[in-house]
Amino acid sequence: MIQAYKKYWKKAGDYKTYASRSDYWWVFLVNVIIFALLNMIHFFMMIPQAAKILNQASTLSQAELQKSILDLSFNPTGSTLIIVILIALVGLIILLPNISLTARRLLDAGLPRWFALLFGVSALYGIVVRFIQIDFLSNFGLLFNLITLVVYVLCLFPSKYGKDEADDSRLYE
């Protein structure tokens, strides 16, 4: 797992070699763990603010309560804003390496690399929509989630390469 993650950063801008399934999915797992930890921190930072809103629930109308809860989620302030920005920054930092890893994985599976660009646009949408709440943008959520799912399924395909290929990128250094 550690070797795959090191390789991920070494080949962050490489779009021409290959990435094995294990390389792809180990990196995927590490990134999921990183984001799970950051989101848990975000969740625990929101608990006191949510408790404050719930304590006022008896004095608020249903519309006011709903607005307060949505504001807590979509308009973070203070420490929750800092963690939301940190999550977005981590997402932006790993965006290009993820696109290149996905392109290399798709190439290894014998599929077109341009699917990785769709995957990148989908990931960028996920970051942007967190900060910009426009109804027009939210209409594309399902589409981008489907694109992401399709790319993940394509990354499950086995390697397809000829015996004459001498690419060492499937091996660990």
TrEMBL record:
The keyword Metal-binding does not apply. Pfam families: DUF805. Keywords: Membrane, Transmembrane, Transmembrane helix. One of its GO terms (cellular component) is plasma membrane. The chain crosses the membrane at residues 24-45, 81-102, 114-134, 140-157. PANTHER family: INNER MEMBRANE PROTEIN YHAH-RELATED, INNER MEMBRANE PROTEIN-RELATED-RELATED. This is DUF805 domain-containing protein. It comes from Lactococcus taiwanensis.
